[in-house]
Amino acid sequence: MCTIGDIVKMLNAAFPFEDALSFDNVGLLVGKKEQEVSKILVCLDVTHAVVKEAKECGVQLIVSHHPVIFREIKRVTDESYTGGILLDLIENGLSVISLHTNYDRAEDGNNVHLARALGAKEYTLTEDGFAVEFALERPLPFDEFQRIVKTALADSVVRCVGEGTVDRVITSCGAGISEGLIFRAKESGACLVTSDVKHNYASMTADLGVRLVETTHYASEWSFTKKMAEYLLGKLDKVEIILSRKNTNPYA
Q1: How far apart are CA 146 and CA 159, in angstroms?
Q2: Dist CA 28 CA 8 (whole Å)
């Protein structure tokens, strides 16, 4: 039977932890490397509902996209949200490995998955892997492209800026938008597809005439669970892989 340490090494080789941005926190965040693993639960976020699900399913390991420990914490108590989750994990012998920005920017990571979901067959990774640019097979009216995004990502909440026709697209999952990315879209005439857009960036896109489709964060990164489950299934033939049913889009 494989151990937590074996899986850490395997994931680090495929999605190097050192590729994560400096503010990030990835790798084994909770648990012991020598613990044996027979069941893994894959999710986007480690919530109270997911921890309960993990206990009910009898897993030893949770593999998440978003780090269960993201910001610095000075104490682990049930007086904080993160502290309560960590206590529940530790008390029940549950380990957590998180793959975040190192997975987003990978050659087969979230940004590429997002582009492919929207029809990209040939594409270019830009912004050091945190964005993907591609051409549509045919130009589309902006309102039609909006519907394609909403349907492809199964997203009930989509907000848009702009008008006209879309023939090029830049995808950047999660909170990936930046001033530099907006100017890149302006120069190439591409429509931006991203999430968690702050007011100043939305205002900037409108002012510069850049088309923008804002999805929910969950929808832009939902592919992690399916793709990670597929990856683990291909590598761990004696370990049961379970997709979380409790970690869903909070806006759905």
Answers
A1: 9
A2: 7
Nearest to 217 by CA among 161, 151, 155, 160: 155
Owning domain of residue 194: 110-220
Sign of torsion, CA 156 192 44 83?
negative
Which domain-ending residue is among 76, 99, 122?
Answer: 99
Per residue in 177-195, pLDDT tens? 999 999 999 999 999 999 9
* 246 found inside a domain: no
- Answer yes or no: pTM beyond 0.85: yes
Read off the tokens for 175.
Answer: 């909170």
Alpha carbon dihedral 35, 71, 221, 38, in 10-degree steps, equals 10
The residue whose two tokens read 């989509």 is 158
CATH number, residue 164? 3.40.1390.30
Is residue 5 classed exposed, middle or buried when 0-12, 13-18 and 19+ CB atoms within 10 A define those classes? middle
Is the same domain home to 63 and 130?
no
